[in-house]
Structure prediction request, 401 residues.
Amino acid sequence: MSNNVVPAVRHFLSDKVEHFTESVIRDMTRQALLHGAVNLAQGFPDFPAPDEIKRAAQQAIAADVNQYAITWGSKNLRQAIARQMQQWQGISVDPETQITVCCGSTEAMISTLLAVCNRGDEVVVLEPFYENYGPDAILSGAKPVFVKLRPPQDADGEWAFDERELRAAFHPHTKAVILNTPNNPTGKVFSRPELELIRDLCVEFDVLAITDEIYEHIIYDGTKHISPASLEGMAERTVTINGMSKTYSVTGWRVGWAVAPPEITNAIRKVHDFLTVGAPAPMQEAGAAALSLPPTYYQTLAEKYAARRDRLMPALTEAGFSCFRPRGAYYVMTDISSFGFDNDLEFTQYLVKEIGVAAVPGSSFYNDPRDGAHQVRFAFCKRDETLDEAARRLKKLSTTR
Ligand code: GLN
Prediction:
């Protein structure tokens, strides 16, 4: 057998996969393992999930909830999702016709895009953006149109879009806008006036909003999360995506959902059915238990994350990073200009191999890698010991160059 199989099989590949790479975020986790680095790259907690929900999952398995759930989600979980949307955001949802439970919000997003996009449809994406959205758009045949969120001038300012640039991105071919609030990687939480402006554009251009709200409950400094679907005129043109991963610290359970008007839900359910049939059944039962936790759970969650943010940020600043203070989600986006590296890739390679800390290069969040060449993202969904060990290692940075 020849080793030289790559050119011979290339013609078997889809053109689509030529247009994106594997996830840099997930690659950084593999590199962290390889080099024994502290992993502040991929956003998953390294602390235990709540006992109540682990027990609920164990009980579900023991009670033999081990076969397929209804393809669009177990009734219990859908009812719990509808109850929560009413309670937290005042959004009325029919669990029978408007909810599709998927294998994580990742699948909810790609199922939604596959369900609504035709070849050539444009999808507006605010950047920096969570890296999945790019390949998601390509796989669904859509063309992403990027609009910049510009970094604040000082550490306490807000990332912001330019109203004219956003308007200019909406065209007759625009099918949807993808919104992620609280935002990964910037930590921005979109304000009501900003969301109203986006709403007005969606109405004027007859565009669907696809909102990724996976960090809904991870918010700081008294900031409020507003679900775009709760704005007047938006319920009928919004797909709200959320999931268990971040709120309940169970990223490996793979339970997420898409909430949409019934006709759109029908289309999402069809795609979801043929992609994955259903999300893990016992985890869905545990999901229903998780969504029934008392309000104090969410308050404590946010407080603990605020403490983690306030533990990591000073260490980063001391090591020479300029930090953009997040209002939500569990990442700090930083500026690395002071270190004198050519770009973010070189810097993160140095960081993981020589310093022993894995982070995500900023370019993975931009369409044009040059835009992120001086930015690096750190995740702080980690135990105090992990953050402290990272801080200890990062101290070496300032003295090494
Ligand atoms: N959302 C997480 C991040 O941005 C990772 C999610 C994933 O890898 N599926 O790091």
